[in-house]
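FORM 7B: Structural annotation worksheet

SECTION A. Query
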Amino acid sequence: MHNSRRKTALFLSALMLLPLVPVLPANARLDVGKDIEKGLGRMVADEIESTYGVVEDPLLAGWVNRTGQRLAAVSGRTDLKYSFKVLDSDEVNATAAPGGYIYVNRGTLRFIQSEDELAAVMGHEVGHVAGKHAMKQLNAQLIGTLALVGFQAIHAETLRTVGGLAGGLAMLKFSRDEENDADRRGLKNATATGYDGTAMITFFQRLQDTEKEKPSSLEVYFLTHPPTAERIRRVGHEPGTVDSAANAAAIGDGYAQRSLYRQAAVAYKRALKLDPDVTEKASIKQRLADAYVKIPQTSDRAPLSMEARELKLKQLASLAEELTAAQETVNTDLAKLAESQKDVDAELELTARSLATLSNYVSRRDTVQFRQFVRMARSFDQAAKVGGNLRSARDASDSTLKELIRLRIAMQHAVENGDGAAARQVDGLVMSSHALLQDLTAGLRQARNEGGDARQATKTLHLAADSLMSFYRSPLSLTGGQINILDLQVSTAQDSLHDSVNDSRKALTQISRSKLDTTLRRMNFITRSVPSDDQAALGIVAHYLGAEPSSVAAMRGKLELGDAALAVAQDQIVKYWTEQKRSKKGDSKDAKPLDMKDPKLKIQPENASVLFDLMVRDLEREIPGQ
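SECTION B. Predicted structure
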């Protein structure tokens, strides 16, 4: 996707905003006050949400909101009610609308490798809101417009201008100074809440590396943000990334709050080493001691008899053969999916160019043409969603199979060393591996098939855009027959892409279910020798799920950690929707029981796998010998 397609994608989001007009108070000021900011922000937010869709999973959305609210609380601007939501988009990007509406794409959540990186991303967007960057640009444009009209026309012109500029905000690219300011503010917000400021640099560095390998998922991010190399150099000189005793101590506090006691201890030791005479030396030493006490400890692992060892190794050898066969199938399907994806991207590029050219000609006065153009714009967005789903399906399939292979190898090494606890994990993996691989291969095969369907649908959309463009280049008016043909082309593309969005999402869900199950097996294996009442392990799970550690402990007493976490996650979902229903009723006594068959009450694998993957990353850092 080159610049033309990227700009078209943003333009289409802005297009639908143009007829909207906020209701301004009678005493509206020329400096575009807070009421206008909120009204305009709500307009932009509504359009963003209707265009991309919002992830309503209380687990993923809840974690993002809790993280965002901590950043907003220290942003220096608390006169707004901040809203943090996850967009149903697999592009790596985040955005902020006026009035405190902040969005992060699900693709970004898949890309990050720690909560510290999420804080860096969202802290930057909070910085835009706190700095009123969008409103400063709007204010300047409004003043320029109002200077050209008479005083008596100010109110009407303000309404029209604000309505027109709303579209521009949806595709706003801030100035270099504003982006720099947002980075500085974001870094300050993150470090003030105990996050590691250097995570902003590691995030940027991985963006650079991934840009070379998989540019398509990052294109929107690079269109709306400054060059990454420049930001790495600049952020590296900010106070929040300096290797100082104060920063290290603050990072340690942040880790401890998230039950990451081993990392907290490392940070506190770093603080004392950097400045042995630091002002809070006694306090830091005490916090270091407290962290040491809570670092996860593993119990002695029961020895494994020679006979049991041979049995488990035989099971693992059989699993290795099954994984090898699956890998051949997966690699073949991945190659075919990659080829279809390339064709879809090529058609999207051509369609984007046609739509970008059409946007210079189409007029609202041309009712028929404008209606078809809007339908094409919405279909283009559907095609982009299909592309995102297919990319995610491809990446998830590849990473899941690789993780399964690594997990099998780790279990083999543990069994060879006589680890009795690992032997029990072998049974669980072998029992689930067949169904897990079935989900993986079936989902990938469906994604591969959808790649071909999406390519044809996108090609039809491209032909429709060219047909409409030919009308503007022709001196003759559209005939009734031409209108019917154009309508048929757009309808065909629209229907096909609608089906492709749903079917590609089903394929991604099936693959994600396999990925989530693999992650749970990995979590159980990592914590196989950790006591069930370990504070760090329980606290990490509770933190990501927004649950009480006692709730996790109750489940952990019955189940292994991964399975316990999944059970708590399910309880949290039901609890959330129960509270939502009661709050709408106003009286809990009148609230009817939830319908447990409702899909929203079930764990959504494509979302849960993001949280559980981050949990496992933290557990691996905390538990020795993993």
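SECTION C. Observations
DSSP finds 22 helices and three strands in the chain. Confidence is low (pLDDT under 50) at residues 1-32, 143-171.

SECTION D. Sign-off
Analyst initials: ____
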